Amino acid sequence: MANDNIKRVRSSEIELKDKLVNIRRVTKVTKGGRTFGFSALVVVGDENGVVGFGTGKAKEVTSAIAKGIDDAKKNLVKVPILNGTIPHQQTARFGGASIYIQPASHGTGVIAGGAMRAVLESVGVTDVLAKSKGSSNPQNVVKATVKALTELRDGVTVANHRGVSLSKVYNG
To answer: Which residues, 6+ apart, have CB-to-CB distance to 70 below 8 Å?
Structure first.
């Protein structure tokens, strides 16, 4: 599994929209008692093939979300999207989370739950069928979804990799 097809993107070039996926209250036990804080998982995307995710931790919710957005902007990747759907089906695992995504015809909508839906909508996919199996931990589901999206390849990439014409890729 090579990561040579991952395309990194600079956040200063595009207009990003952020979505809060998960917020948790975390506790640190010290000798003076318990100290409460918050951990936020945020997904950002331009709804045109660019997506990233990040986590932020702070004493206040708004600070945690702001840190998560800053972290997500540092981890942006480019994803191939064809007519509002993905080019081919893909599976991915991260930790205990296993996901499956497959292209769908126009008008189907985003058939996905929770954390997967936030990632797919942020990247700009409008028609897709998706299934999450195993762990429902939002962090692992988001990471598995982004991993699956980065492993997608469009026809032009496949043609260049094989050294053949685009018509040969589709017509055999």
So the answer is: 54, 56
Q: Strand 77-78 to strand 7-8: parallel, antiparallel, or no bridges (unpaired)?
A: antiparallel
Given a contact cutoff of 8 angstroms between Cβ atoms, the answer to whether 98 and 144 are in contact is yes
Distance separating alpha carbons of residues 148 and 24, to the nearest angstrom: 25
Two structure tokens written together for 139? 């962090």
CB neighbourhood size of 71 (10 A): 19
Burial (Cβ within 10 Å: 0-12, 13-18, ≥19) of residue 102: middle
For residue 133 the two structure tokens come to 């199996």
pLDDT per position as a tens digit, 59-89? 999 999 999 999 999 999 999 998 889 998 9
